[in-house]
Write a structure and sequence with these properties.
Elements: E1 13-14, E2 27-28, H1 41-60, E3 72-75, H2 83-91, H3 101-108, H4 114-119, H5 124-133, E4 140-142, H6 148-161, E5 167-174, H7 179-187, E6 217-224, H8 226-231, E7 239-247, H9 260-272, E8 282-284, H10 291-305, E9 314-315, H11 318-321, H12 328-342, E10 344-345, E11 368-369, E12 374-381, E13 385-392
Parallel strand pairs: 3-4, 3-5, 8-9, 8-12
Antiparallel strand pairs: 1-2, 5-6, 7-13, 10-11, 12-13
Length: about 400
Amino acid sequence: MASCRDPGQSGIKEIRRFPTDSLRTRVAGIVDFLTQDQISAPELTERLATLAVEEAVAEARIGTRDDFPGPLFIAIPPIEIEWPQRRAVADSLGARETYSYEDLLEATKSGAFKGFHDRFLLGSVADHLAERFNTRGSPISLSTACASGASAIQLGVEAVRRGETDAALCVAAEGSVSPESLIRFSLLSALSTSNEPPEGAAKPFSKNRDGFVMAEGAGALVLESLESAKARGAKVLGIIEGCGERADAFHRTRSSPDGKPIIGCIRGAIADAGLTPDDIDYVNAHGTGTPENDKMEGMGVLTVLGERAKSVPISSNKSMIGHTLSAAGAVEAIVTLMTLDSGRLPPTINYQVPDPAIPLDVVPNVARDAKVTHALSNSFGFGGQNVSLVLAREPA
């Protein structure tokens, strides 16, 4: 067994998939084990989601490999046609100095680009996964910014609670690291520009934090009523006890300065779980590393947990894997379940310059062993999308 003093390791690397010479940010949590070819974001998102679902369904031992006995809820990034496809349509018009929007519309009427249309529909990933795993009913695609993964889990929890299904497949995936996305987030001053070394770019809760690091990935959970799981002898990895959700329409990127939506979101999740703030042993933070987000999350945790918050460990795995955006809520819920099961708290790495404005125990730099019974997992997204989940170990 590894030592409880294991230092956290970063997976952030220099981007090699496309040229970054003219970009301010040149690092990301890139998935590089699937293909060396340039593929579209929805295609990579689907491949990552498929791998995660295959693993989740196999581990849950529910249904069969291609027959899942419940609905699909999937969080995906916003989907739009990308520049390679736009150029392909333009190139079909032949060499010319200028062409109009009407020319592009005329080109698409030929039917030669139907594949582009099908691939870049918002529901394309969900439709393909639903067909692949034969889920029940119409698949639900959702995109609630950085809270998307937690939102997918919340929808699954609510469906099970309402008695609509005994099991739900909740997935979140993100494969959108591209020049366009990097430029857009850079224009919002949201990305870290600490390119050297790449491993040190993500610095959640540190005073010298300068933005988040984009990343790709996927997470999938099979949610099932406890009664159903026990009846079939399933291994229960943990319990999702409560969900909290609040909207914050203050600004498209900033949080309301009074923190009420974040505070209400955390309080709502704890109340939904039938617990009190004193029951929370650990917080898996949203912890992006942006100055604004970390400050507001710290204020929210301190307000809800009170003076006790300073002794409750709170860590951000984004310091090691980057911000997986639409997938983050599900990936971090899975990390939280692993924390509950193993009793090992993941660290917040690159924590060298503490921020006195955030007086929290961020589990700095090295993992720590601790018994955790009830954990909070936060997801606070751009545009005011806030979701918190309370998770617990199965009662003995």
